[in-house]
Amino acid sequence: MVSRLEGAALAALDAFAIELPSWGFADTGTRFGKFRQPAAASTLEEKLHDAGVVHSLTGACPSVAVHVLWDFPPDEDPRAVARLARRYGVRIGSINPNVFQDQGYKFGSFCSPDEKVRRAALAHTLDCIEIGAAVGSRLLSLWLADGTNYPGQDSFFRRKERLEEALAVIYRTMTRKWPRATLLIEYKRFEPAFYHTDVADWGMACAFARHAGPRARVLVDTGHHLPGANVEHLVAFLLSEGMLGGFHFNDRKYADDDLTLGSIDPYAVFRVFDVIAQYEWMYGHRPAIAYMIDQSHNLKPKLEAMVQTVCEAQKLYLKARLVDREALARAQEKCDVVGAETLLKSAYERDVSPLLAAWRKKRGLPVDPLRELRASGLIARLGRERAAARKAHGEAPDSSYA
User: Fold this and answer.
1) Which residue blocks in 88-179 are alpha helix, DSSP H?
2) Which domain holds residue 299?
3) Is the pTM here over 0.90, yes or no?
């Protein structure tokens, strides 16, 4: 028999969906190179297959974020991609333009001094809007690598004006061609630019979103902050302002390390979920928040890392929902610092494995999704099949496929 608090927490877990990134199933690496895995996905169909596997194990990942340049063949109807996703039990989620990879973006995309580059970036993003409308997505997720490396390299003022102009066109086009969609604007303190980044923090992203229009929001990447940043505070502030649109989940030790969620500081993730739960308790409504994963699984097997991340997120989300909000509010009103912190820590330290196991069993899911995956032999089988397929297509075998 579950308590009232536990029942409410489990009901909240029912609605907790986490979007998987298509690129998280493919070979990725650092700026120094890639470490290849035999079972890594090398086609869009393989990515969608793997996303379907994760969803079938966890019951929490119905959508897949896509990068347009990486996932949509230029001569293929986007609706065919949507049909392919449905074949594997998922749907296309957020649409991610790529305005950072081409050589022309050396000095920026929308903020570039070169008008031809700005036009190319805008044309690509407008194409992404067409794709998003065609596949039934509801999110355009925009991250820019724009910035400068040296003082005096460009004008901060002109770069800001160029970006505002581009966002105005993007938003107007979305309003006309994709009216129910939301524009998410991501930020990053540094990298690849190391002197200044054009959307450097949550405040700038918030200002750009407000300039763009009422259906624009801020996307918080949990790795895109300077050391010591109080992420849960800025999340609370954005919630209070009605400007939080979603998350890119990962973890970090030094900077934007793209590590699996909770691998370094799970208590930090819990605190983020805690302020969201507190907001809902105080104001009586659940904000529309897109929870997404954005990690680089260079060493961990792709499927295992993704399942591990989703399970960790579910665990920490459930713990945050088990905070006794009324008791916490009383402690805060009395300025009972120790009592308030103890209430928070007791929820974080609680073993929620039995609750999660019962929740999964009720839904016909594996009680331990990661253990189920590891015992299935699926990754080894995919490695053999995909290595053979690459060889059949004439791709040179990597040493890791030998």
Assistant:
1) 115-135, 156-177
2) 4-401
3) yes
